[in-house]
Amino acid sequence: MDYKEKYYFMTQKLKILQFPDPKLRKVAKKVTKFDKSLQNLASDMLHTMYEENGIGLAATQVDHHIRLIVMDLSEKRNEPMFFVNPEYKILDNHSTCSYEEGCLSIPGFNEEITRPDKIDLKWQDLDGNTHNDKPKGLLTICIQHEIDHLEGKLMVDYLSSLKRDRIRKKLLK
After folding, report:
1. Which residues contact 120 (CB under 8 A, 6 or more apart)?
2. Can you give the pTM of this predicted structure?
3. Catalytic residues
């Protein structure tokens, strides 16, 4: 069974909240029930992310305030990843990398953001099994970006207030 058969059955495209919607600032709650409704939401989020040409999507962005992230960094868009209750620790505060980040909740704006590039990541899968990894490259950047969403933080928070206000005004037009 390939990922589309497993995750695309009966999916729906969800509405993505856009900055400056205050719901994007809600802190997500820990997932405690690993059931069919969690799997269905993950499938809908994955479908939504693919439809919008994103590489990651946090549940907060679709107005579900639980600690769930979907992601696919593969070229062929056929390697979905699911992170439930993800958390990370920075392993080296002095080791950083900059990446031009975009966000489905802030369409049309890409900004250079500097983040730690050595982290220890812990998460659960959709069945509740715990995993640990030390991600590298784009995965390190993307997971921090999406966990920020779960904490009510957006990439514009890394920018100057002047730049953030300019983006807010353009999106409100």
Report:
1. 88, 89, 91, 132, 133, 134
2. 0.92
3. 146
